[in-house]
Each structure stands twice: as structure tokens, then as C-alpha cells.
Amino acid sequence: MEYVRRYSLENKISFDPFDLQADISQSTFYRHANKLIKKDADVRNFLRGGLDALGDMNISVKRDYLNENEEWQIDATKYDFMCLNEMGEPQRYEAIGMIDVASGKLVYELAESPNSYANVRLLKKAFLKMGRPGYIKGDNGKDYVSKHFQGVLARLGVSYIAAAPFKGYQKGVIERAHGVMQNFFENLPGFIGHNAGERIKKENEALEKSKRLSGVKTNITNLLTKAEMQATIDRYCERKSKFSKDVDSGWFDERVFGKSYGRVLNAGGININNMIYQSLELYKNLKIGDSVEVIEDIDDISKMYVYAKGEFVCVVEDDERQNISAEKLKKAKKEYHKENIAPVKNYIKSLRDEKDAYYKKIAKQNLDEKMK
């Protein structure tokens, strides 16, 4: 119809949608249209994806021009396995990966959920195994553009390039690595399938219907622990990457991987999250009232690293809290909220609901009386 309309417009004749006439037959039109679609990529892209597809050129070239450790890519994926957590319960983890585009060397870290601490631990592992990258490419996820993750990169002098939204091909190397890694481990216990259909099939294979338990995360047995699965993934990466034992780590600084806090030095020390950190070294190098930057130790919250004007000053400690990781502290806060705060909130909500139900009942009775 559109062809006929345009034909009528160009030839200055009336257009009647109920009496379509043109200079060619319908079959001739389709034949020529198919030739055009095959020949013209813009027409083909428009018909497949509309206007958005016209700007999506997706140009790709052979990437031999990249040198090793010039571009790394980072991304997270839901891991298609159930593992046993620290409590011995089945849990599905996120697999966060980092790959060097030129060499294909890669590392992975399992985490309960994508977060800046998990990303930083992966970053630390990658630095020690692969060296130092020119830049890292990832997406615009909040964990990658967070102050914590970006602060660590800035302190180490590594740039971050965010891929455009919905342009997965811009970090396609790490996304393909996810698929290869997931497929490689399909025979391990705990594999739950790559999609919902495979998940149902795996669960059905695990146990006969009469013995299945309702409400459990999985009926699959003989699960590996998280530590065992992480060791298996590390072994996979070692064999695939053939890491060098002579990686330059002279530039590497263990003290820069934690979150950063700006504070003012006072006589009592430095207060971070209601914890007091103190050291006599502070007052040998600084004056009370001086501004400092404090960076946490992600493996031991009893320690903080103090910097002034970009220069390291000293380590400050809280002796009451030693050898507790930042993640464990975060988890303890969540558990406290779940056990103590959430029940109170739920109780308050139940009282509010009860009150609202009472007044709603009274209002309905009043309305019924009025309608009599």
C-alpha cells in the first residue's frame, strides 16, 4: 500500500486505499524489495530493529593491534551452580571475571552478590596474576562506577572505560569467556542448567518426586563448598592462562584497596564507623586538626592506613577488632538488622495494619448505615 501511495504521489494521481493500482505487480514488487534488503545493510537493519538499529554499526576488526595488558575487560554473571555456603546451605553465587583481551588470560572470583569489595578482590587477584593493565573496560553498573572501585583504580593509576548501555559487544571478550567457563564445568555436581528449562530437568533428575522437599533451594545433592568451587575455577584459570611467575609487582601497593574516608585528626584518634583508631605515629607527623585520608584494610577492619597530602603516614589500629574482613562486618550488620530491627518493623507494620483495618470496618459500617 505504501508503494502505491508514493507512486500516486509522484505521478500526481488520486490515491484510493480501497482501489490500489500501480505500474508493477505485487510479486514484482516483493522480488525487487528482497533484492534491496539483501543489498542495503541500512534497509536490512531498519526492518530488523527500527530506528535504533540504524545507529548500531557494531563495527568490529581483528584485534591483533592490542598488546598484552593493554585492555582488560570486567563483568559479572550469575553462576549456574549451587554451592554450600559457610553455614552448609545451598547457595547460588555470582562469578565476576577479568580477562586480558590480547592474551586471553583470565581470573574469576565467586561472590554472594556483585559489590565493590568483590570487584576489588578480583582486581587484586588480577594484578598479582597478570600484571598491570593500561585500562579496564566494563559497564556502567553501580559497583564498577562506585567511589570505592574507582578510587582504587585512581590510586593505582589505571583508567576505566565504561561501555555504552545495551552494547554488550563492546565487552564481548569477557562475555564469551563466561559462556566457555560455565560450559566447561557442566559435569561438576551442583550444575543447575543454563536456563529455566534445564534447571527443571536437572532438579527432576536429582530426586524422585516423592522424596523432593518443598521450599528448598535445590534437590541436587553432593554439592561442592564455595571454597572447593573457587579452587576449581582458579585451577581452570591457571591451566588456561599459564600465568608467568615473573609478574612485575613492584608498583603494587596492598594499602590502597579499601574504601577511603576523609577525616580530621583529633586528640582521641580517628573515628571510622564508630570505631576509634589510634597510633602514636600520628602525632609525630601531624597536628591535631590536620585533614587526612584514611583507607581501610579489606582483610582486617582493625587496621586503617593514614595518608596526608597523598603521602603515607602510618597504620592506625583498633585492638578490640582484629582479623575481621570488611565483608564479615557488613554481613554481621545485615544479620543484626534481620534478627533485631526487622521483627520490630514488622510488628509496627502489623499494628498499623490492624488499626487501618479497624477504621476501615467502622467507615464501612457508617456507609452501610447511611445507605439504609
From TrEMBL:
SUPFAM superfamilies xrefs: Ribonuclease H-like
GO biological process, alphabetically ordered: DNA integration
A single GO molecular function term of this UniProt record: nucleic acid binding
InterPro entries referenced in this protein's UniProt entry, alphabetically: Integrase_cat-core (IPR001584), RNaseH-like_sf (IPR012337), RNaseH_sf (IPR036397), Transposase-like_Mu_C (IPR015378)
Cross-referenced Pfam families: Mu-transpos_C, rve
Residue ranges annotated for the Integrase catalytic domain, each copy included: 64-236
Entry superkingdom: Bacteria
Name assigned to this protein: Putative bacteriophage DNA transposition protein A
Organism annotation: Campylobacter hominis (strain ATCC BAA-381 / DSM 21671 / CCUG 45161 / LMG 19568 / NCTC 13146 / CH001A)
Taxonomy of the source species: Bacteria, Pseudomonadati, Campylobacterota, Epsilonproteobacteria, Campylobacterales
